[in-house]
Amino acid sequence: MPSRLLVALVALCLSLAGGCSGTALQPQAATDRTVVTDCGGPDAPYAVRNQEADGHWFAVRGGGRADADLRVTAWQLLAMLGDGSTLRSGPWRGSVKGAVKWLRAQQDDRGRIGLRGDSDWLLDHVMATWALAEATRLSSCTELVASVRAATSHLAEQLVLVRPSPGPELRLWCELLAASAAQIEALTDERGSRGFEVGAAILASRLAALPVAAPATDRERAAQWWREARAGKDVAAAVVEAWPADPLLDPLRTLYLTAAAYQFGGATWAGVTRRIERDIVRQQIRAGDERGGWPASGPFAAQNGRFGVHALSVVTLEIYYRYCRLSCWE
Question: 99, 105, 186: which is closest to 135 by C-alpha?
Fold first, then answer.
């Protein structure tokens, strides 16, 4: 792991117990994963220091709002999975297990995760569902299949009811989920059996049947460019022109721009890496109680708090250092 990311994640040592108790799945093409022994110490990474005992991240404690807990916990889980920890192995194994347990506890009998009555909930739901799907895929664990299936099924039902039609950001996360779900369905169990259907085809078909809404905000435009880059479209000029003066003011938009540039590669990616070095790596807090985090200000931080800014900055750096384990970059 590159030295700067070691700084970004502070010290990857805390005694984290636990793992997945479900049946192990076997990828079609097996890959070896190194098991890192957990160790205790006072220099635990920022995310672990700030995780609640029940496994989630309390956005209010980080300066955000209570209704952001679902998405912030999903982002933190994705950051840990992207770094290489799973339910079975890795330095953040216990934190991954805690986050997964909390997300599953928020799910009702209709598959809805952390149901709220506001218009932002469905996006939060799909973010949480993708995080659970990635935990299932990367941990090769059947324990989460039913939760992912139920959440994906409810999402597919809701997509046809969304008015206006789903925008680029919601579509992006649905597409990421559909791709991850398809990989779960390609896994086999210990006996070589398959059949872990989680709704990938249904979700993909629902998305394909819906009209495409035009992006209404800068963040949605960035999400659309990532979607287009994933499809092979040249979005280089748009991404470079749209790079923000302070990427931490909306780290979700910054993540989308970074991912689009990475997908496209070449000179565009080289230019973006220099900006990440200048605008994100060098802004990280190096000392004090907030060491390992990033400055948080503006409307995004007011809603999602320091923990939201931190999680998305870490995922952005995982792309920057070209080793993110999430399915969208494999």
Answer: 99
